[in-house]
Specification:
single chain; alpha/beta; UDP N-Acetylglucosamine Acyltransferase, domain 1; five-stranded parallel beta sheet
Length: about 200
């Protein structure tokens, strides 16, 4: 039997990709992932809807968005996935209604296990922790969300922040590396008038 040429191998692998639903999905994303304008947003919404765990109405998927383990990503209504954002959903990721991701946001729900010093990290497997981003949260450009993070409703995360797993109050303004609460979006209560003497 003659040795398979490079072109034959590529065609054979393409054939197998087209037989597999995830292969077809990946090919569609590679083809339409950077298509511009409203047409691109609508095309991507149709492509992703068939593979996501769930997707609400009015979802905006901008150019360059990528996801691993797409079947473990749940999107609420009117979610906006920013340009070049990347979600690793292997441990499950949920974005509630009206969540906005700025450009370059990364959300991770899976990480390498590193406990055994006598084995290469690449052979130790993974740990998974679900991520939940609450209703109305806005993650600024280039935010990184670690596995296990739960943001309650209304939080704003400043651009470039690295958000670890800890407790955050609703409507918090979060910033830094590591991220911490630096303010609140809630209105300040009116000062109590002084009692007359």
């Amino acid at each position: 039997m003659a040795e398979e040429t490079g072109l034959f191998i590529i065609i054979k692998r393409l054939f197998w990709d087209l037989k597999d639903p995830i292969g077809r999905f990946n090919l569609a994303v590679a083809t339409w992932g950077d298509y511009p304008g409203k047409a691109g947003v609508n095309i991507r919404r149709r492509i992703y809807r068939s593979q996501l765990a769930s997707m609400g109405t009015g979802v905006q998927i901008h150019q360059g968005f990528r996801v691993r383990n797409v079947h473990k990503l749940s999107l609420g209504n009117h979610v906006e996935l920013g340009v070049d954002s990347f979600i690793q959903a292997g441990g499950e990721v949920t974005l509630a209604d009206h969540v906005m991701l700025g450009p370059g946001v990364k959300i991770w729900s899976i990480n390498h296990t590193i406990d055994q010093v006598d084995r290469p990290i690449s052979e130790q497997g993974y740990s998974r922790e679900a991520v939940s981003i609450g209703e109305g949260c806005w993650l600024g450009a280039n935010v990184f969300i670690f596995p296990g993070v739960v943001l309650p409703e209304g939080c704003v995360v400043s651009a470039g922040s690295v958000v670890g797993k800890k407790k955050y109050p609703p409507f918090a303004i979060i910033a830094g590396y590591p991220a911490r609460v630096i303010g609140s979006r809630l209105p300040k209560p009116d000062p109590t008038p002084e009692e007359p003497a």
